[in-house]
Amino acid sequence: EEPLKNGSEVNLRIPALIPDDYLPDVHTRLIMYKRIASASSNNDLRELQIEMIDRFGLLPEQVKNLFKVTELKLSAQKTGIEKIETSASGGRLDFAEDTTVDPMKIVMLVQNNPQDFQMVGATALKFKKQLPDAEHRIQAVEQLLEELA
Length: 149
Known about the structure:
Layout: E1 9-11, H1 26-38, H2 42-56, H3 61-79, E2 81-87, E3 90-95, H4 103-112, E4 117-120, E5 124-128, H5 134-148
């Protein structure tokens, strides 16, 4: 018996939600959260964004962040990254045992940038970078996932 896996966890410490002043009906909001969380591809997410814009108007920043975080979650799942965390001063990636990330890519990243990257144990990569806002955090994680893919 194995524990139920719920995919990758992404915590960028940014507002990523559907505000009630954008979508006041609680039931509809919960349905949209479920549909976003259940999306299996970036294409599914794009279609949901289009639908939300059609039904409720232009997306506020928090909803855009929610979609970006969900895209990052899908990318992390594909490469076997269990957890992504960021804050204003950097972040951390936790790799699954069955990650598809080439270990040499991680080694090269750490060796070429020892002031910015360091391994924590055998399965976590820590990075230092000034990430003052949502845009910087999303960009940094996207870039790092791209380098490791």
